[in-house]
Amino acid sequence: MAKIRIREVTIKESEGAFRFLKKDKYDFESLSSLRKLLSKEKARLLDVVKYKEPSSIYSLAKILGRPFKAVMDDVKLLERFGFIELVKEESKSRVRHKPVIVVDEVVVHLKI
Fold it and tell me: What range defines the domain where residue 38 resides?
């Protein structure tokens, strides 16, 4: 049985505002960062990466029907927060960066 990879985010109330507890390099600096990460487009992107396994970011953009730059920006954000990795693959004279899911589950803890 494959091991489930879980990403945990902890949010703590502090002096009337919510703050993210720093555990590793992926944690968020504000609630707006988490909100950006949980958009419908990012969920759709993660779904395509997981189930259609595109061979490159260009291929991912084509499947999504979105501009390459917009998809690249989303991929970089998801990579920054540890949801996906870009795997370098060489084919003939090209180098591709294949997006791969590295998290199966996200758990958000809210401490009040």
Answer: 6-111
Q: What is the mean pLDDT of each run of 10 residues along the chain (112 residues)?
A: 68 60 53 74 93 95 97 92 89 89 80 68
86 Cβ partners below 8 Å, 6+ apart?
57, 75, 79, 97, 98, 99, 100
User: What is the pTM assigned to this prediction?
Assistant: 0.74
- Count of domains observed in the chain: 1
Give CA separation, 14 vs 10, 20, 84, 107, in Å: 13, 10, 30, 20
CATH label of the domain that carries residue 24: 1.10.10.10
User: Which pLDDT score is estimated for 105?
Assistant: 82
How is residue 18 written in tokens? Answer: 């919510």
Kindly report the three-state secondary structure assignment for every residue of 27-56: CCCCHHHHHHHCCHHHHHHHHHHHHHCCCC
Q: Please list, in sequence order, all residues whose beta carbon lies within 8 angstroms of the beta carbon of residue 61, skipping any fewer than 6 positions away.
A: 67, 68, 70, 71, 72
